[in-house]
Amino acid sequence: MGRVRKVLGRPWIIGVLVVAMAGAGFGLYWFQPWKLWQDETVQEALPGAAEASAPPTVAPSGSPFASPSVQSVPDTLAGGELISHEHATSGTVKLVRLVDGSHVVRLENLDTSNGPDLRVWLTDAPVKEGMAGWRVFDDGEYVSLGRLKGNKGSQNYAVPEDVDLSRYSSVSIWCDRFDVSFGAAELAQV
C-alpha cells in the first residue's frame, strides 16, 4: 500500500499513465481491430429484377452504354472479378442499367475482411495486382458510392445520375481511413 501511494504521489507517473490510456483508446478507435472478427452479411436483390413484367422503357441517350432498344429487364453493361489487395477479397462486380434507366454497381458474392470506413468507389484507375495496386485508386478520378453495406453478400450501390460512366473503368473496396484498397475489379463491357 505504501508503494502504491509513493508511485501515485509522483505527478509525472500519473501524466504518463493518462497519456498511455488516451493513446490506447485512440488506437482502438482508429484501427477498430474487433471488426476483423465481425462479419456483416447483406443480401439485396437486384432492383427491378422481379419487375420484369413492368412496361418497357427506353434506355437513356448520351450514355456510352446506352442502347436505342427498349428495355424491360435490368441490363448488365460491364463486369469483372474482384482481386485481393490489402485483404483477401473475392466476388463479382457488375455495372447494371435498371429498367428506369438509372445505374447501380452490384457486388455479388462479396467476401472480404471487415474494416473501418470501407467505401465502394467507381474509379478511373487501372487494377493492378499485388501491393502495386493497393493505393492507386485515389490518385485519379473517383466517385464514392457510399459505405460498404456489409463485407459479405450481394449488394447494390446507386450511381449518381450526373456520373459520366465512360470516365470510370474499375471498382474498389476502399478503406478511406487508411487510404488503401481491400480489393478491386476492372470493368469490362459485356
UniProtKB/TrEMBL annotation:
PROSITE patterns: DM13
Residue ranges crossing the lipid bilayer per the database entry: 12-31
DM13 domain sequence ranges: 75-188
Organism: Streptomyces sp. NBC_00093
Signal peptide residue numbers: none
InterPro entries: DM13_domain
Name recorded for this polypeptide: DM13 domain-containing protein
Sequence segments annotated as region (Disordered): 48-70
Keywords: Membrane, Transmembrane, Transmembrane helix
